[in-house]
Amino acid sequence: MVFNTTDFQLRKLSLTIVFFLLLFVSRIAVSQTASPPASGAKKNEKPLHLFLIGNSFSGNAAKYLRELSEEGGHGLIIGRAELGGCSLQRHWELVEAAEANPEDPKGKAYNGKSLKMLLSEGTWDVVTLQQYSMLSGDVETYRPYAKKLYDYIKTLQPSARIVFHQTWAYRSDADGFGQIAAGKLAQSEKEMWENSRAAYHTIARELGAAVIPVGDAFWRLSSDKKWRYQKDAGFDFEKPQPPHLPNQTHSLHVGYSWNNAKLAFDSHHASAAGCYLGSLVWYGFLFNESPVKLTFVPEGVPADFAAQVRKTAWSTVKAVGKGVEK
């Protein structure tokens, strides 16, 4: 065999080129697999800047909004001014304290910041307001604070659209319901929903604002013969034994849970299914788009119920409002 130096060098060069080409291609494939393109915002669509002024109920209702927005291809930036159990009056009193003395800690109740500071951190497309659920059925508790907050927000964010988040009624087996007039409480979930709905829409009409109909969506499911929650008549509430819980199928509220061997009950706040319903209503309202085909479902929500929740959310939005124009 004759050894040809030139042939050897050419073969070596060819193998080197092939090696680097293969390496380059493999790196591209790994990069695409490891970092898939983000769904992000739809082409040429600016992210929606949403600011929530509320309490734990706004936190519940928007809990899964990011996941839904991402799947739907909508960019979303959320700002928050939320305090547990905070009413419209309380939010306004904090504004007054901050305006009287910007250095007064009393006015900086939102993690060391005032509402003015938070609203001034960006340009917000939509700002939401809501009443404390216990007062939501009494329209007089909204006045004059809803208008004062509305006008205040407009001075800081003149181009923002201000809308009301209609909160929901307590579960049918609650040990008490919200106020519907001074010294008078609702006697049922239905009565609380009816009065709360009327109050939200009355104030919204006075201010020319729209309503995110989460409370209506809750009631649609709560009053549906097939999908409503029904109290477990076979459970021994007098002598409960941990870790057993009553059947709470289709509950939109947290309901019963065990806490240090004590049976706890929360008939006010939303369960995973309730948070899902609220977020779906917000999605449909904010983007004026059906969430029915979205596939994200929180853990613990059965597939058949989740499908009904999506349908209910969108039918409620279509029935009540046209969504937010961007």
TrEMBL record:
InterPro entries per UniProt: DUF4886, SGNH_hydro_sf
Protein name: DUF4886 domain-containing protein
Any one GO molecular function term: hydrolase activity, acting on ester bonds
Domain of life according to the entry: Bacteria
Domain DUF4886: 51-175
